[in-house]
Amino acid sequence: MPSTNLVSEFTSAKSYSVSPFITTAWTNPSNALTSNAASTTSGGNNTYTFLLGMRGLSGYLQIPDSATITGFEIVIIMGTVASNGNGNITGYFNLVKATDSRVGTQKTQSIPVGSGGSYTIGTSGDMWGTAWTAAEVKNSEFGVDVGFNYTSGFFSVGVEQVYATIYYDYVDSTGRRGVYSTVATLRTN
């Protein structure tokens, strides 16, 4: 079957605590919805940040109900990454199904202290350790939770944007490939 993907931005962001991410809340979480010089920030001393919960792709996703989900990439664009100690900061990433249910395999990313950068977590064939349906991905609570930890002193991180690429297979009833543009307009070849 042909593969198709759609790059989407999330439509809502929130800061909340779920153990062990209970110490430092994110300021202005909505800044992580679009590339923004005034990034959302969090940090603390030897601690986990609150989770930055990114939700709401459903308004943009036109994935057919019969599509087979084949993988997820989450891209996080970091603004600033600072610490007063040595070593890297660890980022934690969980995919979320409806009602804030973190599922599958938690991913980690080592992030060096410095000016930030772009990090891609997952691949076109990575299901993050669980099965997904098109309906689950299109649910308004589908998303990703992002948190950070640093054990060597005070740290702060800024996130400028988080977005997702959803990979799926789909062939329509006539055998034609369904192709979606970045603005989720359906075309057929």
CATH topology heading: Jelly Rolls
CATH class, anyone? Mainly Beta
> Mean pLDDT, as a whole number?
85
Number of helices, where a helix is a run of at least 4 consecutive DSSP H or I residues: 1
Spell out the helices and strands N to C.
EEEEEEEEHEEEE
Beta fraction = over 45%
Mind describing the biggest β-sheet? Answer: 5 strands, antiparallel
Low-confidence stretches: 179-189
Give the number of DSSP strands: 12
Q: How many domain regions?
A: 1
Query: What's the CATH architecture name?
Result: Sandwich
Helix/strand-derived class?
mainly beta
Query: What's the overall geometry?
Result: elongated
Structural Rg? 17 Å
Distance between the termini: 14 Å
How much helicity do the residues have?
Answer: under 10%
